[in-house]
């Protein structure tokens, strides 16, 4: 019955770095001189003072021909058109939802940018406007695509595809957006039967795969059921996640935490590798231990290196 | 923390997980997340500690001052708690936003430390009826990642364990006034006896289950949470054998949230709180002794927040 408590000393803190053989890149702090202005052009994350290019953010320098950029290590998400994002509904407004996507400004999802239940191509009537909360309400998680970027930098999203839309039971973890590797596909179904959405904005969604299918079919029933104002019962209709799925999700979540602690790029390959390596630890909660986290990240990095060598 | 949004489906996922005794990061209902502790982080304070529990970050400082004891308690010193919620933790704490939470925690601690069996104020007495030590415990909350009360109480106990009170070298009686001369040498000082100091355990009730150490997400799904203050066992905090172990006793109970709880369930909650506090107390005592043994041998490297 008694629980497990572990308190470690700061002097025994684990160093999460796995970059043993490949050297650590030069790190610039804000205000630090990057180079002279004469030979180079200044790019993002830099400014000019006293004929010198200085860094305006804390991060690593990247040079493309004569252009000098400094990429911040931690930053908010800077959206690009076509990005897959995971977001949370903050507010229901007139004809639109306000979505939190980890950007500097909240993103917008217009009512005209979602697929309404019942028909793909029909006019949006006043009733639809009244019933917006039945489609998405405050707190709901969605996956969406960046449709366009407004002049102030806020994002307009759309969910006009079957793969986007509301997310049901599962877990969302937040990581730095810079750690998500840009790939063609950000929707994955892992061999363990878990569907993962690696949002470009650093929000990662994990849920059971079958659940998504079930809930999608049930979608229309749910909307009609919620008209009875019996939300609880309508959600009760969702089947509970099986223990094996739950364990897989928890294991994946801890693997992501381990990879993030070691600042490793996340894509489906690293995730699967880390997941497989983590089975060295039988119990999922053992992965919360900092030493186990480092071990998993190290083994994953090792496997990536061997693949690169081949 | 309030203000965190969660969809209904996510709530169901968390509820089902608690029912299965398998939470979203693989912990059972009675497991704590790993913690990291460092004492003596603030050199200008008499004692300090910093505790990090996943995303919850707490810094505690103890300062001492000479005070005149209250006339009804001439032989006792006093201890005061002050909690400051940094706006770094969440934007909600900006201005007076964190005041309510801060008051709640400081009142909880004040009540938990009130009993003489929990914290012996006699050790703070210098001259009975004339002068005593007053401890100011300043708690700074730097980040909130759930389970604030437990983290704060652990850090407070660690900071008190780390506190040194200077010896009085000489006292000059001048009429009714006493002029104290304190030792300047920082090592010419005594440690406090904090073995019995209470720890707070937050138990969150979900359906029929009680969980400890809720994450911020889990805290939004709870109808009622009960904080139990449990006194510690002094035998865990000394390396010498002659300290008499004492039982873990409940010093305070507080309830928050909109929900209610049945009297029978309350008994179980308190019993579980005491069990959890026992585990926490053992782990904390072991870690603190380990750090003290190490610093006795060599000068301590400070880690702090950078690195």
UniProtKB/TrEMBL annotation, chain A:
Span of domain RRP4 S1: 76-148
Gene3D superfamilies: 2.40.50.100, Nucleic acid-binding proteins
One MF annotation (Gene Ontology) recorded for this entry: RNA binding
Domain K Homology intervals: 170-209
InterPro entries tied to this protein: Exosome_cplx_N_dom, Exosome_RNA_bind1/RRP40/RRP4, KH_dom_type_1, KH_dom_type_1_sf, NA-bd_OB-fold, S1_RRP4
Keywords attached to this entry: Exosome, Nucleus, RNA-binding, rRNA processing
Glycosyltransferase keyword on record: no
GO annotation terms (biological process): CUT catabolic process; exonucleolytic trimming to generate mature 3'-end of 5.8S rRNA from tricistronic rRNA transcript (SSU-rRNA, 5.8S rRNA, LSU-rRNA); nuclear polyadenylation-dependent rRNA catabolic process; poly(A)-dependent snoRNA 3'-end processing; regulation of gene expression; TRAMP-dependent tRNA surveillance pathway; U4 snRNA 3'-end processing
Domain Exosome complex component N-terminal, residue spans: 27-64
Record keyword rRNA processing present: yes
Subcellular location: Nucleus
Single GO cellular component term: cytoplasmic exosome (RNase complex)
Family assignment from sequence similarity: Belongs to the RRP4 family.
Name of this protein: Ribosomal RNA-processing protein 4
Automatic annotation (TrEMBL), chain B:
Domain Exoribonuclease phosphorolytic: 32-166, 198-270
Main location: cytoplasm
GO cellular component, one term: nuclear exosome (RNase complex)
Compartments, as annotated in UniProt: Cytoplasm; Nucleus, Nucleolus
Coiled-coil residue spans: none
Alphabetical keyword list: Cytoplasm, Exosome
Name of one Pfam family that matches: RNase_PH_C
Biological processes annotated in GO: exonucleolytic trimming to generate mature 3'-end of 5.8S rRNA from tricistronic rRNA transcript (SSU-rRNA, 5.8S rRNA, LSU-rRNA); nuclear mRNA surveillance; nuclear polyadenylation-dependent rRNA catabolic process; rRNA catabolic process; TRAMP-dependent tRNA surveillance pathway; U1 snRNA 3'-end processing; U4 snRNA 3'-end processing; U5 snRNA 3'-end processing
An annotated Gene Ontology molecular function: mRNA 3'-UTR AU-rich region binding
CDD domains: RNase_PH_RRP42
Gene3D superfamilies, sorted: GHMP Kinase, N-terminal domain
Keyword Cytoplasm applies: yes
Family named by the database record: Belongs to the RNase PH family.
Protein name in the entry: Ribosomal RNA-processing protein 42
Taxonomic source organism: Leptosia nina
């Amino acid at each position: 019955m008694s629980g497990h408590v572990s308190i470690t000393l700061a002097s025994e803190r684990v160093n999460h770095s796995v970059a043993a053989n490949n050297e650590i890149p030069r790190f610039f702090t804000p205000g630090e001189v990057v180079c002279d202005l004469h030979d180079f052009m200044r790019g993002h994350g830099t400014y000019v003072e006293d004929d010198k290019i200085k860094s305006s953010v804390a991060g690593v320098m990247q040079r493309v021909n004569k252009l000098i950029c400094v990429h911040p290590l931690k930053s908010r998400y800077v959206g690009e058109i076509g990005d897959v994002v995971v977001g949370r509904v903050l507010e229901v407004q007139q004809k639109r939802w306000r979505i939190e996507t980890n950007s500097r400004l909240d993103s917008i999802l217009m009512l005209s940018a979602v697929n309404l239940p019942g028909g793909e191509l029909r006019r949006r009537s006043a009733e639809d406007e009244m019933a917006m909360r039945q489609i998405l309400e405050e707190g709901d998680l969605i996956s969406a695509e960046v449709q366009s970027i407004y002049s102030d930098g806020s994002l307009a999203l759309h969910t006009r595809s079957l793969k986007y839309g509301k997310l049901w039971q599962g877990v969302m973890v937040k990581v730095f957006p810079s750690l998500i590797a840009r790939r063609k596909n950000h929707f994955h179904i892992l061999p363990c039967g878990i569907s993962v959405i690696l949002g470009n904005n650093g929000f990662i969604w994990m849920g059971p795969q079958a659940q998504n299918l079930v809930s999608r079919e049930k979608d229309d029933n749910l909307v009609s059921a919620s008209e009875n104002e019996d939300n609880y019962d309508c959600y009760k209709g969702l089947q509970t996640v099986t223990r094996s799925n739950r364990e897989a999700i928890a294991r994946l979540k801890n693997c992501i935490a381990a990879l993030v602690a070691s600042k490793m790029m996340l894509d489906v390959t690293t995730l699967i590798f880390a997941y497989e390596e983590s089975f060295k630890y039988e119990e999922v909660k053992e992965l919360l231990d900092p030493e186990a986290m480092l071990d998993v990240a190290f083994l994953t990095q090792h496997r990536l290196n061997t693949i690169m060598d081949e | 923390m309030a203000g965190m949004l969660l969809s209904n489906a996510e709530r169901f996922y968390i509820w089902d997980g608690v029912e299965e005794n398998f939470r979203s990061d693989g912990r059972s209902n009675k497991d704590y997340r790993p913690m990291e502790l460092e004492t003596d982080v603030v050199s200008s304070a008499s004692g300090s500690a910093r505790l990090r529990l996943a995303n919850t970050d707490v810094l505690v400082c103890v300062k001492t001052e000479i005070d005149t004891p209250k006339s009804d308690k001439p032989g006792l010193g006093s201890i005061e708690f002050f909690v400051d919620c940094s706006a770094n933790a969440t934007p909600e704490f900006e201005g007076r936003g964190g005041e309510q939470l801060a008051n709640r925690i400081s009142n909880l601690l004040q009540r938990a430390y009130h009993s003489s069996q929990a914290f012996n104020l006699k050790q703070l007495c210098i001259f009975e009826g004339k002068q005593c030590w007053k401890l100011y415990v300043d708690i700074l909350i730097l980040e909130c990642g759930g389970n604030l009360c437990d983290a704060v109480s652990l850090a407070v106990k660690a900071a008190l364990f780390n506190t040194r009170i200077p010896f009085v070298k000489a006292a000059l009686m001048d009429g009714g006034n006493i002029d104290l001369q304190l030792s300047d040498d920082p090592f010419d000082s005594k440690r406090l006896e904090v073995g019995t100091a209470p720890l707070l355990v937050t138990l969150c009730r979900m359906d029929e289950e009680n969980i400890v150490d809720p994450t911020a997400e889990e805290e939004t799904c709870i109808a009622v949470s009960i904080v139990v203050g449990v006194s510690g066992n002094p035998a865990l905090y000394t390396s010498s054998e002659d300290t008499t172990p004492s039982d873990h006793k409940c010093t305070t109970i507080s309830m928050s949230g909109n929900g209610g709880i049945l009297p029978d369930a309350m008994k179980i909650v308190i019993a579980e709180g005491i069990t959890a506090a026992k585990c926490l107390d053992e782990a904390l005592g072991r870690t603190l002794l380990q750090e003290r043994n190490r610093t006795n041998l060599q000068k301590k490297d400070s880690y702090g927040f950078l690195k």
